[in-house]
Amino acid sequence: MATVPITRRRPLTSMRHDPSAVWHHVDGVMAACLLAVSALGVLMVYSSTRGASAPFDSSFLTKQAFFMALGLVAATVAAVIDYHKILDVAPMIYGGTVLLLVAVILVGSSRSGTQGWFQLGPFQLQPSEFAKIALILGFTYLAVQFHGDIDLRRLAALLAVGGVPIVLVLLQPDLGTALVSVCITFSLLVAAGVRGRYLVLLGVLAVLFATLVLTSGVLDDYQKDRLTVFANQEQSQSQAEYRGAAWNLEQSKIAIGSGGLTGKGLFNGPQTRSGRVPEQHTDFIFTAVGEELGLVGAAGLLGLYGVIVWRIWRTAQLARDDAGTMICMGVLAMFVFQIFENVGMTMGIMPITGIPLPFLSYGGSSVIMGFIGMGLVLNVHMRRFR
């Protein structure tokens, strides 16, 4: 099918004679909150890796600071280039990412039962993280060609764009990232104007597909045990076969609960310093926030996230065209799901799925991907005037 130009590429009046004027429209509130969360992330990674139970490894702090700096550069690049020009190369970005997802299954390195990384010297590259951004761009590129007129054939094409990376990520298997991608896809379907009856049908099919995944051999036993622990937490703590899966949740609850109102103090959390919470610098870093900064600190962090989410939603409403709105809605869905799932799993109200907390958890791929997503939103915000 022949493509058409991305919708409404009209120049901004304020930029016709001065391209640099676009920076006058940057969302300072969003940027400030992003920097605040990122700075807290560096502090919490430092706190989570300097415990008394093992010698301090400064490489975590150094790498996280490097990832943040690299992320800021990536966000700046993503914000500077007009998002319409980025969408013009979206098919290449999407196709290249799919090839990386295939390659990592074949020749990638494995960690915790998931074969999802390329080893690049002292660093690791996780293609599934960048697949989230590629999914948003690829889906948006195709959807804007339809101009809101989506029949079954076009719906199938959109589902294929979302489904291919989801299936490839499940084959690693990485349940958490696959769930994030499902949430992104559904959000983009809504933003694209898919009819309500189709969305209901897709919801039913998604439940059937999830049942198939859970009952098949796609997921590893430890991933199934995590879901079992969530479904029956009290019984799981007394059963030996689930004890390992329940340990994370049990220790996480103890750490958060012991923080009280104001916490034990930065760098002074007993659970954090003793290393009792597994993966406390990555997936369970919110436990360190709860223990050391207490309810006040945790609420402050969630408040910063809330402002970021609100500003992304606001930018989606102010976007100059459907393409900008869809980019923002995809990024919004990605962050909201990750924040809710990560914080929820540390408190036992959501299953443990190994999803990082945006801009806080240690990890280069997730940090840089998050900054790219924010850069795209800032891009849309700066070019919001018709």
Automatic annotation (TrEMBL):
Swiss-Prot/TrEMBL GO biological process terms: cell division; regulation of cell shape
Topology term for the membrane: Multi-pass membrane protein
Primary residence: membrane
Keyword Transmembrane: yes
Pfam families linked: FTSW_RODA_SPOVE
Gene Ontology CC: cell division site; plasma membrane
Organism: Iamia majanohamensis
Protein name: peptidoglycan glycosyltransferase
InterPro entries: Cell_cycle_FtsW-rel_CS, FtsW/RodA, RodA/MrdB
Transmembrane segments: 21-45, 65-81, 93-110, 130-148, 155-171, 177-194, 199-219, 293-311, 323-340, 360-380
Protein EC: 2.4.99.28
Coiled coil: none
Catalytic reaction(s) noted: [GlcNAc-(1->4)-Mur2Ac(oyl-L-Ala-gamma-D-Glu-L-Lys-D-Ala-D-Ala)](n)-di-trans,octa-cis-undecaprenyl diphosphate + beta-D-GlcNAc-(1->4)-Mur2Ac(oyl-L-Ala-gamma-D-Glu-L-Lys-D-Ala-D-Ala)-di-trans,octa-cis-undecaprenyl diphosphate = [GlcNAc-(1->4)-Mur2Ac(oyl-L-Ala-gamma-D-Glu-L-Lys-D-Ala-D-Ala)](n+1)-di-trans,octa-cis-undecaprenyl diphosphate + di-trans,octa-cis-undecaprenyl diphosphate + H(+)
Subcellular location: Membrane
Keywords assigned: Cell shape, Membrane, Transmembrane, Transmembrane helix
GO MF, one example: lipid-linked peptidoglycan transporter activity
